[in-house]
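Can't paste images in this forum, so I'm doing it all in text. The chain is below; anyone willing to post the predicted structure tokens underneath?
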Amino acid sequence: MFRFRSVVPALGVLAVTLVASAGTYQLKADAASSITFKAKATIGLGIPGKFSGLKVVDDGTTITLSVPANTVDTGIERRDIHAKKTLGVGKKGDTISVAVPKKELKVPADGKSDGAKVTAQVTINGQTKPVRLSYVATRTGSTYAVKGDLKLENVWANFGMEQPEMAGVTVKPEIELFTSFSIKEN
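Text version of the structure:
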């Protein structure tokens, strides 16, 4: 159940992916791409997790990263069930997304790295909120390796979700999200 909260941070990682795709690029994450998150329970227990099925869409002005909420994986099936319920899977929360205006993204020169902090629109449980995210993109020829992170604060209240509780232990409302992926120029 606790790991489900980790899902929200994963979206932040997705947003980082958007940064590297500010030009004419194949918007496709490679097999080594990852979206992971880290949450904590009130007793100090760490709750790691991940999502799969990352999709990237470029509409010309905005890069949007999305992941199916039902792919949340905390390593414990019972937690995954609670996470999917909390995320609104089967109702209004089937997709978690991060959208960033292309004009805010930096594309490094060959052999260089560049990054920034940008404001992304994060959608979880059918509700969209602005969230700051950090990223660094490194270019090698026509390939861009991107790493990013974001913190979601007050995630339960901000995204209209009930705070998960099991046996008197709850997940704290702050979640960290991390991403790592590569994209290639056309």
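Residues 4-185 form a domain with the Lipocalin fold (CATH 2.40.128.110). DSSP finds three helices and twelve strands in the chain.
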